[in-house]
Amino acid sequence: MTRNWLEGHDTVVVATKNAGKVKEFAHALQKLGKAVVSLHDYPSIPDIVEDGDTFAANARLKAKATGDALGVPALADDSGLCVDALEGRPGVYSARYAGEGAADSANNAKLLQELSQIGAALAEPELSDGSKPLSRAQFVCALALYDPATGEFIEAEGTVDGIITDRPHGDGGFGYDPLFWLPQLGRGMAELSKEEKGAISHRGEALKLLMTKLGIHNE
Ligand SMILES: O=c1nc[nH]c2c1ncn2[C@H]1C[C@H](O)[C@@H](COP(=O)(O)OP(=O)(O)OP(=O)(O)O)O1
Ligand SMILES: [Mg+2]
């Protein structure tokens, strides 16, 4: 068991510029009595190039650059959507699917366009609102916590399976959430509260695992 790196820190640095992630981490870590700061609070840290081949490699890159710049442990999240009908794309390219700096709405539009182009369709009945299931998909989240004092990493990964539908459901969450349907719940990811999403999501699962590795037992 690793020592708890977060002990004695009432603020956790999350190496992200994604406001949706910040909200989810803030909500989850608040239960441990910890506040979250993000790269929005440190504009002087230069942009981090995410050129790793895997979610885990990118998470390590972001955690290390941030931890080294600030001299305190930093937590990074690299995540994305892997769509079966697209052979796992957009994967590590999820954030820039529709181009560098693309808005979530543009990425969602591109996803529907690609799926429509190949005529993706699941041999499953349509949902009760008439929307069509297009492909199985998985959200993946790799977390890396880095300690600049020792150069060590603690890492964890989580996934959640779902289905991409041809229409959005709900307006919560961020990113691809509106197109991600959870057949096991009969609801869309963007229809869940932060609490509900955290309980089942790729990020929630990765965070639980990371906390276990740190020896922190929540609930
Ligand atoms: O729970 C999620 N619900 C919906 N979409 C999600 C989720 N988690 C990741 N995603 C999507 C958003 C973005 O298109 C990509 C992450 O890319 P990723 O590089 O990890 O994050 P980012 O560039 O938005 O912020 P940053 O790198 O500063 O942490 O996957
Ligand atoms: Mg990114």
Automatic annotation (TrEMBL):
Binds 1 Mg(2+) ion per subunit. Gene3D superfamilies: 3.90.950.10. The keyword Lipid biosynthesis does not apply. The active site is at residue 78. It catalyses: dITP + H2O = dIMP + diphosphate + H(+); ITP + H2O = IMP + diphosphate + H(+); XTP + H2O = XMP + diphosphate + H(+). Substrate binds at residues 16-21, 79, 174-177, 197, 202-203. Keywords: Hydrolase, Magnesium, Metal-binding, Nucleotide metabolism, Nucleotide-binding. GO terms for molecular function: dITP diphosphatase activity; ITP diphosphatase activity; metal ion binding; nucleotide binding; ribonucleoside triphosphate phosphatase activity; XTP diphosphatase activity. It holds the Pfam family Ham1p_like. One of its GO terms (cellular component) is cytosol. Its EC number is 3.6.1.66. Mg(2+) binds at residue 78. Its cofactor is Mg(2+). It comes from the Bacteria. GO terms for biological process: nucleotide metabolic process; purine nucleoside triphosphate catabolic process. Belongs to the HAM1 NTPase family. Homodimer. Pyrophosphatase that catalyzes the hydrolysis of nucleoside triphosphates to their monophosphate derivatives, with a high preference for the non-canonical purine nucleotides XTP (xanthosine triphosphate), dITP (deoxyinosine triphosphate) and ITP. Seems to function as a house-cleaning enzyme that removes non-canonical purine nucleotides from the nucleotide pool, thus preventing their incorporation into DNA/RNA and avoiding chromosomal lesions. HAMAP family: Non_canon_purine_NTPase. This is dITP/XTP pyrophosphatase. The lineage of its organism: Bacteria, Bacillati, Bacillota, Bacilli, Bacillales.
